[in-house]
Specification:
Structural class: mainly alpha
CATH topology of the domain at 255-422: Butyryl-CoA Dehydrogenase, subunit A, domain 3
Strand content: 5-15%
CATH architecture of the domain at 255-422: Up-down Bundle
Distance between the termini: 28 Å
Subcellular location: Cell inner membrane
Radius of gyration: 24 Å
CATH class of the domain at 255-422: Mainly Alpha
Strand order of the largest sheet: 6-5-7
Family: Belongs to the PqiA family.
Order of helices and strands: EEEEHEEHHHHEHHEEHEEHHHHEHH
Protein name: Paraquat-inducible protein A
InterPro entries: PqiA-like (IPR007498), PqiA-like_proteobact (IPR005219), PqiA-PqiB_transport (IPR051800)
Pfam family, one: PqiA
């Protein structure tokens, strides 16, 4: 890594705003943030190798225990129904709702478990081919966003409120281990610093001697200095270099066709959002009658039954958040096209909110998964997912992809242009 005049400082390129920052040696427990956009650049954890490994191993043990015993049970008029975690996708597969089952398997079980195993293998330097280690690390950080175990847990808690209106709910032996699994897997990712992690795999390539000026300056955007960031391993590369020599990921100074891809995904999600809210997401069969429920009807039912906090959570997560997210992404694309006059700091704040809250809209999908698997009591009462649930899940996934394809550095390019202009005037 290129260094500036201070011997113990290293240069880090911010992946959000493209500012080159000189990071000094950090003491344990400290983190370095970008002075322009406040994004965390790197952190120094105590036992950076063993801490993530410990949390990841604990998470896997808790997940294993959570799959062995009953998760939750429900009693209605003397009829008892209980489920384990593996039974949730199994029931949906048996009822020809394979799409919902696949969503659950991938986002709640397979992806979190894979990420925990990958953290253990990579942090403990398990002997493997260099190419395999790099590919495993690339997949690990890409999959982080799709770990939705904690969102499923929130969906379970919401489903309790709905189920208590019909019968008695009991927690199984696996409920506490699953709560601990969610806590440990989140903590494992928190203790894993990407910048340190990739430097442990292989030192970052030197870039200073490849530049015309021969030296990088902290406090200036990377694009102005002719360098770019490898979005995979955080290495600083010449802007024209298409492939990273460390992780072999192809990239560009700015994501190619970022706005076009984002808008295409956004338009598709808008098209699906309308039928997802009009069509029923859940069918309740009770005593021979069938009741279809849309998202809004579910919110109204919870509100009328006095469950105001839960009704607000579902309304915000399932109706407001997807709609506001689509509007926010549209605004970001409009501004990045240099059609807007908003400040870069404000647009970056909007982007961070979109990134944080987007996946939480899956909470309603997981509520339906729990209800459909647990409430199986024949003619007395049964709950089934409907077409609207699948469409709504696709809306959430597409908006997540839209925010991923959007390049946040585009919102700072206007500020970078002003920066370069001011420097030229000073010189």
């Amino acid at each position: 890594m290129c260094s500036n005049n201070h011997q113990h400082e290293q240069l880090v390129l911010c992946h959000q705003c493209d500012m080159l920052v000189a990071v000094p040696d950090l003491t344990q427990g400290k983190k370095a943030v970008c002075p322009r956009c406040s994004t965390v650049l790197t952190a120094k954890w105590q036992e950076p190798r063993n801490q993530p490994t410990g949390y990841a191993a604990s998470a896997l043990v808790m997940l294993f225990l959570a799959c062995l015993f009953p998760f939750i049970s429900m009693s209605v008029a003397g009829i008892v129904s209980e489920i384990t975690l593996p039974q949730i996708p199994k029931v949906m597969f048996s009822e020809d709702y394979s799409s919902m089952a696949v969503f659950f398997l991938i986002f709640v079980q397979l992806v979190p478990a894979f990420c925990m195993v990958a953290i253990i293998l990579l942090c403990q330097h398990v002997k493997m081919a260099r190419r395999l280690k790099i590919e495993l690390a690339r997949i690990l950080f890409k999959m982080k966003t799709w770990c939705m175990a904690e969102i499923f847990l929130a969906g379970v808690l919401v489903s309790f409120v709905k189920l208590m209106a019909y019968g008695e709910i009991s927690l199984g032996l696996s409920f506490l281990p699953y709560c601990l699994f969610c806590l440990f897997q989140v903590r494992a990712f928190q203790c894993l610093d990407r910048h340190w992690f990739w430097n442990e795999i292989e030192p970052a390539p030197e870039v200073c001697h490849l530049l015309p000026a021969g030296k990088l300056q902290a406090g200036k955007p990377g694009l102005i200095q002719g360098v770019r960031l490898c979005q995979c391993c955080t290495a600083i590369l010449p802007a024209e270099q298409p492939s990273c020599p460390r992780c072999h990921t192809k990239g560009y100074a700015r994501r190619r066709h970022s706005l076009q891809l984002t808008m295409a995904l956004l338009i598709t999600s808008v098209i699906l959002y309308i039928p997802a809210n009009i069509l029923p997401i859940m069918v309740t069969q009770a005593l021979g009658s069938h009741i279809n429920s849309t998202i809004l009807e579910g919110v109204i039912l919870l509100w009328s039954s006095g469950s105001y906090p839960v009704a607000m959570v579902i309304f915000i997560a399932s109706i407001m958040v997807p709609l506001l997210k689509m509007l926010a992404i549209s605004w970001l694309c409009w501004d990045a096209k240099k059609q807007g006059s908003s400040e870069s700091e404000k647009m970056h704040f909007i982007y961070e909110i979109v990134e944080f809250v987007g996946r939480w809209s899956m909470i309603d999908v997981f509520v339906i998964a729990v209800l459909s698997a647990l409430v199986r009591m024949g003619q007395l009462m049964s709950i089934y997912p409907a077409t609207g649930a699948i469409l709504f899940a696709l809306v959430v996934i597409l908006t997540m992809f839209a925010s991923m394809t959007f390049d946040p550095r585009l919102t700072w390019d206007k500020a970078n242009s002003k920066f370069a202009l001011n420097k030229n005037e000073e010189s």
